[in-house]
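**Polypeptide and fold**
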Amino acid sequence: MRPTWRNWAGNVTASPSRILFPDNEDEVSEIVAQAAQRGLHVRAVGAAHSFSPLCATDGVLLNLDRMTGVVDTDPTRRRFTARAGTLIRALGAPLWDAGLCLTNQGDIDAQRIAGAVSTSTHGSGMRLQSFSAMARGFRVIGADGQPSAITEDEPEQLAAMQTSVGLLGIITEIEIQATERFALAERVEYWTMPEVLERWDEEVAARRHFSFFWMPFRDSHDLIHLECPAGLDMTDRSMVKLYDERPVESIGPRGERAEPTPHGLNRLDRPYRIYPDPDFTGEVVHRELEYMVPFERGKDAFLALRAFVCSGQSEHRYPVEVRFIAADEAYLSPFYERDSVSISICGHATTDWVGFLAEVARVLEPFDPRPHWGKVHYLDKEMLAAKYPRQNDFNGIRRKLDPNGVFMNESLAALFD
């Protein structure tokens, strides 16, 4: 009997021929070579922290949970190398001890680094790029089972590999550009909609990180366990997250943990300790869509979605999260050559979430969105070609590296040549 695999939300399942847990690069190499000889597809999975069928396969599924750890740090060049299965949250302390920090970090740190890079996972900050843009080199097992290194000496392959959605090989190690360690000051406030719109541009320009959750309904914050002041009606209000960089010395000579103020919402500490949100607990019942629009169209796109949600969508009560990300050069990055605003919203598993998120996609389409590869999206091959200027270049590199489609799956074959 074939094993069953599910993503973290349970909305994607697959029945691969085998699920394997390699311990090292040599084992990955042998597995891929044998699968290719047998005509089987190969996909890799890390934390399965996605809503899209990126990892699903009827061939061999490689779970990278055992391939973890920081391999090397280079404080002089502000770089580090980590194995593909390393959890983002496991990077904080080793980098700090080496005098480094992640340049930017998402508000979820439960992903594994290869998955985060391969899907352009991101944090928020108009001068800060996604995980893809931080990648400076890869060790990869190709379709023939042979290892290779992709470095800055091969800029076109690197630009394709930075957001590869697993189509160019199995990543075993990644070299990441970091930054010198710093402290982060957090402030969380609750603004009315006029305040958000009035201060939007000012806060984006001034803050290291600025983002917000807009609440369409009084109880919206409860759906994703956001803390809001008791007695405050959050209807059409936003929970606003403001972060500023501070010197390391501001949190003490040893960088000890700072005590949070009431609600744990205003803190000064190491970035990896306070920027990520708490883990989801219990059953994952939300289904998330996240689209990125050009920065200059972000406010209008958000207002269009707000108007849609307020026009009789009372069954769909999740907050809308808005973040800001700098442009990069990765061919399949949603931020390719454009500063962007990320707009994300969820549907509930017990509702018609597919229809609701399809309507959300329709509302955002006039604003030239690009999707997060790990979230629900409604992209087809024609739309992909229109939205990603370097799609043909990526396809050419993919065909060269994997002419037989070893790393393909059904959903990706509908999008890529």
